[in-house]
Amino acid sequence: MSVHVIRPRRRRREEGIALVVVLLFTAVVLTIVVSTTATLALGARGGGVNERAAYQALLAAESGLNTFAVRFATDMDTLSSDQQLRGPMTAARLNAWLTERQLGTYASSTGTTATLSFEGTASPLTLVATGKQGDVARKETLQDYSVERSPAFNIRVDAALASHPGVEVRGNAEVSGEDGDQSNGTILAAKVEAPGGLTLAESASSQDFSLTLSPQSQSGKLLLRPGDYVQAGLPKATYKVKSVAGNQVVLSTLGGTPVTVLAHNSDVMRVDSAVTAPFTQSLNTGANVSQVKVSDPTAFTVGSTVFAGQMKGTVQAVYAGLAPSNVNYNSIEVKWVEKTDTLAPSITTIAEGTPIRRDVLGVVSAGTIDTDGKGTITEGSSANNKGMQDRNPYGTSADTAATDMFTYTFGQTKAQMLAPTGWLPSTTSFNGTLTGEPVFYNGNLQLTGGSLCGYGILIVKGDLTVNGTCDAGFHGAIYVMGDYDQQGNSSLQGAVLVEGTSSVKDETKIAGTGQGDGKIEYNRAALLEAGSALSPLTLQTVTGTWRQR
Predict the structure, then answer these.
(1) What's the 3-state SS for 299-327?
(2) Which residues sit opposite 367 in a β-bridge?
(3) Are 130 and 115 a contacting pair, CB within 8 Å?
(4) What is the largest CA-CA distance in the chain?
(5) Would you say 399 and 412 are in contact if contact means Cβ atoms under 8 Å apart?
(6) CB-based contacts of 361: which residues, under 8 Å, 6+ apart?
(7) In 78-206, which residue ranges form alpha helices assigned H by DSSP?
(8) To the nearest 10°, the Cα dihedral for 146, 152, 155, 156?
(9) Distance CA 192, CA 207 (A)
(10) pLDDT by residue (tens digit) across 42-85?
(11) Secondary structure of residue 450 in the 3-state scheme
């Protein structure tokens, strides 16, 4: 007998609802899984895009930073000396230069760009490279740079006193030039710091060696740069400077350098301007003219007498301030005098590193020169000097070295000096003491009571009266855009240059008993050190300072 069980309708209804709930829960879980997977996928994709953008931004910043020193140096090498960066070493001025020369941006091969700017108040300064990839990523890399001046810019002067107006030297005052025939063409630059000394073996070919030197300048800086020549050792030998890092130099021997001992504390003499390519000159044949490659053409003036070995000549042309690509770069043209019994052999070979010496007059003027029977001018003078007349400070011609006295002297025009990226801001406050940095005084200036002292360059936009110097005297260059009057016990080593207030002004007056050897005495070492403040700026990376921010 079978039994038929009748299930309640309520129970069947509950089983149906449970199935629906399970299905709904499963759908929700699947939706969450799909959504999470999609979100993770999109996030990973977006993260990958951002990561790639950040990486590209970092690469651009790093590349901009790593290539900057080379790009900066390359850009400077394309410029003539009057266009190169000189003057104060401030971040603001360097940034203005970066903008002017379009060095403040860098574009990578991927199209990502980086901007560069300096931070800081004194050397070393920090260069910040900021790389950007659109609006997605931004990265910064930093590198410290020491900002230095390549030393030994030569202030160009024709005489110890170069005055466009007439000159009066009276009251037992003395203005002294330099006899090139008696000069050895060198100045004391340093002493050897090599305990026990250094002996170099004889070599027919060049060899490089490192040497630590003790600077002998007032600034305590080594006034040497790559490409200079020095004479040192016993017996004396000539070497070429290959590199300079602080007080450490690498010198290169020239062919045939003899056995030489560089003893501790022995003198290292910088050749003021040396022959950089040997040449052979035949005298008494043709025009006796040759173009001579020299380490510093600004040491010469057209018309001056020069000496090379036993040869004597007159400078016909000076090629200074040219870009390295110019065929005449760093050369002078000399007409050698014909052979006599007291001069060089008929055929003379001048070796690399040979000093080219020159006569420097005591006074040159576009006007008259009067000693009043009481003043003394040594090494000669040149009144109504054509070169000074051509470099008329009141002329309307374009400011070039041939037409303007200021440009001729400093290698840049007054407009370039005063430009936003110019090298010398003006002041109306000056106590008379210079410490190496140039001073541009805007106005008339009186320095009395022996207040003029120190070393450097003093430029006065107005009249200048000097009544005495400190006991040590002043070393460097004084450039006066107005009248100049010097009196009392004054000792000036270097040179004085005077424009005057008009082409018909009263004479430049030099008077007094003086101190030491002369009232104004031409001094190449003083001018060399003063001129170093006008040398183009160079940048050197500080090791171990690369970082990210």
Answers:
(1) HCCCCCEEEECCEEEEEEEEECCCCCCCC
(2) none
(3) yes
(4) 165
(5) no
(6) 158, 159, 160, 177, 379, 380, 381, 382
(7) 91-100
(8) -140
(9) 18
(10) 554 545 556 777 888 888 888 888 888 888 888 887 877 667 77
(11) coil
Q: Which two tokens stand for residue 541?
A: 């990376």
Token duo for residue 538? 């160079």
Query: Residue 288: how many CB atoms within 10 A of its CB?
Result: 17
Three-state DSSP at 11 gives: helix
Q: Which residues contact 359 (CB under 8 A, 6 or more apart)?
A: 177, 178, 179, 180, 181, 304, 305, 306, 379, 380
Written as six digits, the tokens of 56 are 């590209």
303-357 pLDDT, tens per residue?
A: 889 999 888 999 999 987 777 788 898 899 999 987 665 666 677 889 999 999 9
Q: Which two three-digit tokens encode residue 54?
A: 């950040």
Residues in the chain: 549
d(CA 513, CA 519): 8
What is the distance, to the nearest Å, from the Cα of residue 388 to the centroid of all Cα atoms in its chain?
27
Distance CA 268, CA 199 (A): 15
Separation CA 372–CA 424 (nearest Å): 38
Angle, alpha carbons 322-334-364 (nearest 5°): 85
Instruction: Answer yes or no: are the C-beta atoms of 545 and 198 closer than 8 Å.
Output: no
> Does residue 228 contact residue 207 with C-beta atoms inside 8 Å?
no
Count other Cβ atoms within 10 Å, centred on residue 184: 12
Backbone angles phi, psi at 474, to 5 degrees: -110, 140
Select from 285, 345, 286 the least CA-distant residue to 312. 345
Answering whether pTM is above 0.70, one says: yes
The low-confidence residues of the chain, meaning pLDDT below 70, are 1-16, 34, 37-50, 81-82, 110, 135-136, 150-152, 194-206, 285-286, 339-345, 396-397, 420-421, 503-505, 513-518
Q: What is the number of other CB atoms lying within 10 angstroms of the CB of residue 249?
A: 25
Looking from the CA of 388 toward its CB, the CA atoms found within 13 Å total: 26
Q: Alpha-carbon distance 388 to 367, whole Å?
A: 9
Q: How many CB atoms lie within 10 A of CB 204?
A: 8
DSSP string computed for 103-136: -SEEE-TTS-EEEEEEE-SSSSEEEEEEEEETTT
